[in-house]
Amino acid sequence: MQMRTAVVGAGVVGLSTAYALLRHGSEVVVYETGAPMAARSAGSSRIFRLAHGDPGLVAYAAAAAGLWADWTHRAGNRLLGQQTVVVTGPIAEEWADAMEDAGADHTFVDEDDLDTAELGLPVEALPGPALIDPAGGVIDAPATGRFLRAAIGNRIRREHIHRIEPHEDWVELHGSNGVHEVDHVVVAAGRGSVDLAAQVDLYLPSQLSHHVRFTFRLKDPDVTPPCWIDDTQSWRDGVTSYQHMAGPGLWTVGLHLPTELEFWERGRAEVIDHSRELALTYIHDTLVGVDDEIVEEVYCDTPTVLRDGVHVSTTGPVTVVWGAHLFKHAPAIGQTLASAAVHGGSPQVPRSE
């Protein structure tokens, strides 16, 4: 008899888990309140990188890279680009050490040897040091979603799951369309995971912040800058950024602001307006070759206290996954959760930063 597994949440982690479960031979249903690949999985692109501050996360990202390559082969089109990633600022040396410990290919450039022009970034000058991750690149988020949805097919159901009742070796799910019995449930519902996890005495960080990123046009549509994670705070104290191509001739900028400027209590509209004003000022003050007209805004809520990493808790037949910046790890997370659900035991993920 096939194992019956439910996945709550059809973001990239939930769909990756369902995909891996199907490949393990499990019977799967995915329950999603809204549209698949929305909320924290929305937008045109994400950055993939091996570079992390912990060797375990570097190794986990390397495992994910192999799975991204497999997905690309099966999808018939490239899901992960080859733009490389440049990391600048104080974290560069720490991350370089972690990559060295994990045996990952990288280049570390000391501040005295840094040539901004050689890095290919859309900025005239930049304090170092810098880390170059040649395995990094841009993930095509919509293409990833299309691939996963096609593979999972009609197993994705539009239904809100509002209660989980675990028993010794099965789970009862209460949803807007009725009650469902399964052998195991994986909760990967973003913000919705908090309440569901609490019902089985698993407690997730509940403090949220607002975040928004903006996409602009490159003045030269033929240039292909590398992805850029800037930790220098050289523009303003307390402000860091991530930047990458979002498509041909498009450049995405996400500013990480001081915590008090992204507080949930400030309200979504106020944070978006302030972030937009700061992003436009940043473009004008710092970047070269980037037009200051916004062509796309992508909003998401994000856990305030979490840094890079994957968090998993299991109680009986219920597994809950959460974390920050999970898109790049999604194939590996799905494989980890599916294997644990099918074969038993606790999912093993690396220590988070």
From TrEMBL:
Presence of keyword DNA repair: no
Q: Which domain of life is it from?
A: Bacteria
Instruction: State the EC number(s).
Output: 1.5.3.1
> Where do the coiled-coil regions begin and end?
none
Record bears the keyword Oxidoreductase: yes
- Co-factor requirement: FAD
- Enzyme class of the recorded protein, top EC level: oxidoreductase
Query: Residue ranges of the FAD dependent oxidoreductase domain?
Result: 5-339
Which UniProt keyword terms apply here? Answer: FAD, Flavoprotein, Oxidoreductase
MF terms per GO, please? flavin adenine dinucleotide binding; sarcosine oxidase activity
Q: What is this protein called?
A: Sarcosine oxidase
